[in-house]
Amino acid sequence: MKKNNSLLFAILLLCSFIPVPPAYDTNFVEISGYTDKRGITYNFVYMNRTGSGNRIKAKYFASRGEDGSSVSSRFMGWGKDMNVIAVTSAGYMDRYSVPVGLTIDNGRIVNSNLESFDGLIIVYATGGVVATNLDNADLTLQGGGITAGRKFDIRGSYRDRQDFIDWAESQEATVFQTHLLVYKNQLEIASNASTTPRERRFLAVGKDVNTGETCHVIVNSPESTSLYEGTRRVKDFLNEYKDMEVTFMINLDPGDQNVFFLFNRDGSVNNSIRGPLPITSAANLLAYYYQ
User: Fold this and answer.
1) Is residue 115 part of a domain?
2) Residue-wise DSSP of the chain
3) If 244 and its partner were Cys, which of 51, 235, 238, 262 is the partner (CB 3.0–4.6 Å)?
4) How many domains does the chain have?
5) pLDDT tens per residue, range 113-164
6) Range(s) of the domain holding residue 277
7) Residue 211 lies in a domain
């Protein structure tokens, strides 16, 4: 009962920060579900970023604030003035809730150590999200005095890594490392990845093959599967049912940090995808909003 009361309190608290309607344009935000021919169900939030004129944006809260404020309080202080679509836990943390791998929060260095994860995710101050495979050593950047076309080898060159960090600071970018499950529409995850069956949740960014528009999709697969099988099924779902070529897909691990809130256009909570933990349990948060 105590756990349920905490969740209810968190939902009510979140709702108090959601603005009056319209919160977002439903022409560009689709909340729906689909059951394939095998009887597997997917619940998803499909966001057409290009179609909305880039009014759909992302913001990542990677860690506590410089003043020690919690991730949840940082989010709620910011979110009271924003039309929030969804908010979810995202990145990997250690047992002390410290981000694992290279992490920069709105231009502030949180962790300068590179880990073995192949994915580097950049959330721009303008609300865009991109990813690179560090194994390819071909990251390119825009703005901040960076030479057009320059490729950064973050892992192999100390100079490139430092220049990248300097760029992120100057651009107030947010950066974190994670596993790339899909990259350039190809599976990157090994078939011997985590075999523990559980509910799976993913973030995919790609293009509509019919229009070329950039879309961001959060997919929840409630059926318990291994990470590899869940990744493969969701990629197939996006390719075949949503006509989407997946640029990259990462894991939004619904495990110890299973925080997820989704909102309807009128600001009410949509329970088609919901994490069981209160917002205060989050060690990091990825928010999508409409501006």
Assistant:
1) yes
2) -HHHHHHHHHHHHHHTTSPSSP-S-TTTEEEEEEE-TTS-EEEEEEEETTTTTS-EEEEEE-S--TT---HHHHHHHHHTTSEEEEEE--S-B-TTSPBPSSEEETTEEEE----S-SEEEEE-TTS-EEEEEGGG--B---STTPPTT--B-TTT-HHHHHHHHHHHHHHT-EEEEE-EEEETTEE-S-TTS----EEEEEEEEEEETTT--EEEEEEEEEEEE-HHHHHHHHHHHHHHTS-EEEEEEEE---STT--EEEB-TTSPBPTTS--SS-GGG-SSEEEEEE-
3) 238
4) 1
5) 999 999 999 999 999 999 999 999 999 998 888 998 999 999 999 999 999 9
6) 25-290
7) yes
